[in-house]
Design a protein that fits this description.
The chain folds into 2 domains: 81 residues, no CATH class; 181 residues, Rossmann fold, CATH 3.40.50. Helices cover 32% and strands 32% of the residues. The strands form 3 sheets. Strands 7, 8, 9, 10, 11, 15, 16 and 17 form an 8-stranded mixed sheet that branches. Strands 3-1-2-4-5-6 form a 6-stranded mixed sheet, with helices on one face. α1 packs across α2, α3 runs parallel beside α4 and α5 packs across α6. The longest helix is centred in the first third of the chain and has 18 residues.
Length: 271
Amino acid sequence: MLRTAFRVVGCPVAVGGSSDCLALLGRLLAPFAARSATLAPVAHVGRRSDGLYVLETPGHCSWGDFLTVIGECEWWLVGRCLAARDDLLQLHGGAAADRRGAVLLPGVSGSGKTTLTLALLARGLLPLADDAILIDGAQGVVLPFARSFHVDGGTLSVVERLGITRHLLLPDDLAPGYCRPRRWAPPSAPRLIVQPTYRPGQPLQLERLRPAQTWMVLAGARLASGGAPDHFATVARLTEELAAYRLWYPDAAAAAAAIDALLAEEGAARG
């Protein structure tokens, strides 16, 4: 049986299956590629006799078209590995950084966090994550998580308009509905929290959050990761130390410029 191995956030995992399935999975998870001659596969993906594709795991079986099944396998593998890292505070959101530090963009699906994370490339920031922000509380840094971004046509049109396609592997390089930055920020200290909401046709609006509001935003964005008690100490520290805002925006370029200005203000305030 063919198989391929990955190491996602330090967790080794192998998948068995047909060559076409493993080739696409390998493109999507290329930053996590690893070698293992002995690791037993935890999942299998392949084509059935009726032409549908199937994903089989120890507790799950699903089937469908090629892209759907491979996308589900990628999601399952990443989720399995994240669940094993309960030492990391995991927040649902995007993040990007430059020499000034990292901006955290906690938000729900559809809030525009992926588009905004990519738009920050035009301001000189590099991505850290677009879906799962990983914070090492002991070291006080946000870790890069080089997973492929899920994108739609609207996000790709923004990428083209901002002229940042050269910074990305696009769907033609990966698969429909995916892109991935060519470069990632190194582990970076958090400096700013911005909760974005895409609001077309309305003016850009910023609202400074009070500490209690910031706590609720971060606690609400926390992904289930085993419930390590010191995660709440990290949330409290972020709440106390970082300026936090809500941002409603109609245009990703204007929103990225506003975040860039906030980072500059924070840098000036810190001397």
